Amino acid sequence: METKVCIIGAGPGGACAALQLAQLGISCIVVDKAVFPRDKVCGDGLSGKVLTILERIDKGIGQRLQQAAFKMDSWGVTFVAPNRIGMDIPYRLDYQNNRNDPRGFVCKRIDFDNFLVEELKRRPEIRLFEGVSIDKYELKEDGYHLSDKEGKFQVKADLVLVANGAHSSFTKDVAGIKMEPEHYVAGIRAYYKGISNLNPDGFIELHFLKSMLPGYFWVFPLPNGEANVGVGILSSVTRNKKVNLKKLMLDTLATDPVMKERFKDSTLIGNIEGYGLPLGSKKRKLHGERYMLIGDAGYLIDPFTGEGIGNALYSGQIAARQAAAAIAANDFSDSFLDAYDLDVYRILGPELEVSTKLQKLIKYPWLFNLLMKMGSRNKQLKDLMSCMFHEVDLRKKLGNPMFYVKLLFNR
Ligand SMILES: Cc1cc2nc3c(=O)[nH]c(=O)nc-3n(C[C@H](O)[C@H](O)[C@H](O)COP(=O)(O)OP(=O)(O)OC[C@H]3O[C@@H](n4cnc5c(N)ncnc54)[C@H](O)[C@@H]3O)c2cc1C
Asked: Closest residue (by CA) to atom 50 of ligand 1?
């Protein structure tokens, strides 16, 4: 088979690239080693970015997602500092009077990713191959020659969009990006039913417990009284301190005074599963001759929040646009694709930089404690933090030590 564009991976990043290409009238082949619906270990939290990008590609996709029954609307975040002072921060200040347009959701990836794959199947421009793993890739004069291990499935592409996630061998072997423990998080996730005191407005909970810094423990409410519960900690810390994440989480649920009470009537559904989070706390080269890296394959996860779905979608859309430009110019060279990195880092870079600074600040629990203590008493500071969800410039303030100095002196 031959194609202008082959996308490896039909997760959020690959699916978004394919949908954007289709919208631009460009056909492509998408290959995924899994057969959908398939699970993906994740916190299942979808930020406002997800709907924004999907609506930008096609308003209809956004509407269908809004109507889907498998998701829980989420109106904000509860941050809990190491001193256990918590603060509820809504995504928008007027949410109690304006219930029509939730921007955040929690939904199991088995459902969300299948929703996107169903969208791929609606488009005649997209040929989707499921249950096929691309294991060989050879760059020749006339394009990339891709195939499975046995060579039963073969495709030649002018351009390859690599969206095969955190364990991408293409990223390692061709792009030369290696896993660095200080830019990588180890995460586990479990589903529980029957946890008490879940927020009725679907606020997601991030608990920065002392035993887990600079990582956190989360509880994300799902429909049907279930919740996604997990822990993510920097791999350099888990390695140095020999942390067993599963044991740490189960011990926390059994012994922490607050969690012990909230989980006492809960049931674990299925297994506790783990997976890696490649962080965007370091700038990397995301392209080469005839290829671009998307989403986790390009290490684009937010280092503070652990959010990667939104950034996978953004990079997928940018890569599709760059692919269209490359096809129009008939130029698939390394230098022509420089524009991809420029766009990704122009759009996502400022946010990644701020989050890298914030990730470093949570090493200082006293600072976090202080911020929460003040925020819980000071409405202005709380409102400012709400606005930070939309304004990167405002979030920059949080990454700047002077912000805290001013706060201290203005108390
Ligand atoms: C514990 C944990 C919690 C997380 N919580 C959140 C959260 O709450 N919110 C959030 O936004 N992000 C979260 N993330 C990050 C998020 O899961 C990822 O950023 C997101 O899945 C990236 O999407 P992607 O399309 O790049 O890759 P994936 O979603 O990993 O998709 C890659 C696809 O490629 C396919 N594939 C792999 N290898 C091959 C191959 N050789 N050939 C063909 N196909 C292949 C796979 O089957 C898969 O379908 C979390 C991650 C973890 C591990």
From this structure: 42
Report CA(178)–ligand 1 centroid distance (Å): 17
What pLDDT is stored for residue 345 in this prediction? 97
CA–centroid distance, 68 to ligand 1, in Å, is 21
- Domains of the chain, start order: 2-38+103-179+281-352 (3.50.50.60), 361-409 (no CATH)
Residues with CB under 6 A from ligand 1: 8-14, 31-34, 40-45, 133-135, 163-166, 187, 189, 230, 232, 275, 277, 295-297, 301, 306-310, 312
pLDDT along the chain (411 residues), means of 10: 98 98 98 98 93 94 93 90 85 75 88 98 98 97 97 98 98 97 97 95 91 89 96 94 95 94 97 97 97 98 93 98 98 98 96 86 75 71 64 58 54 46
Residue type, 160: V
Backbone CA torsion sign across 9, 192, 220, 180: negative
Mutating to test ligand 1, I would choose from 277, 279, 313, 317 the residue with most ligand atoms within 8 A of its C-beta, which is: 277
20 CB-near residues (< 8 Å, 6+ apart): 57, 316, 317, 320, 321
Q: What is the pLDDT of residue 84?
A: 87
Q: How far is the C-alpha of 140 from the C-alpha of 169, rounded, in Å?
A: 19
Q: Which residues pair with 312 in a beta bridge?
A: none
